[in-house]
Amino acid sequence: MGVGIWAMHYVGMLAVRISMTVLYHWPTVLLALLAAALPSAVALHLGDPSTLPVIGLWAVVFAAASIASINNRA
């Protein structure tokens, strides 16, 4: 899920046409991948149907954190 969030973000950024050259700093790109993948992994782990509803709500918080972190880093 995190890799999908990351990939969709960068495909969207590549689709934008602007009149200047855009270069990507690879360490930042990899940091953005980790920022999307790690909270997503936690969200999927916490979102297990066998967990209590309150713990399931934390899964939503981690999923939102994953999306917010990729949009603020890249």
What are the main properties of this structure?
3 helices; elongated; 74 residues; mainly alpha
How would you explain this protein's 3D organization?
There is one protein chain. The chain has one domain (2-73). It contains 3 helices and no strands. The chain has helices at residues 2-15, 26-46, 53-73. The mean pLDDT is 79.
Please give the structural blueprint:
Blueprint: H1 2-15, H2 26-46, H3 53-73
Total number of domains: 1
How large is the count of helical segments?
Answer: 3
Helix-strand category: mainly alpha
- Helical content class: over 70%
- Cα-atom Rg, whole angstroms? 15 Å
What proportion of the residues form beta strands (DSSP E)?
under 5%
Structure summary, number of beta strands: 0
Output mean pLDDT: 79
Question: Main β-sheet, in a few words?
Answer: none
Query: What is the straight-line distance between the termini?
Result: 17 Å
Low-confidence residue ranges: none
User: How would you sum up the global shape?
Assistant: elongated
Order of helices and strands: HHH
In short:
The chain has 74 residues and is mainly α. It contains 3 helices and no strands.
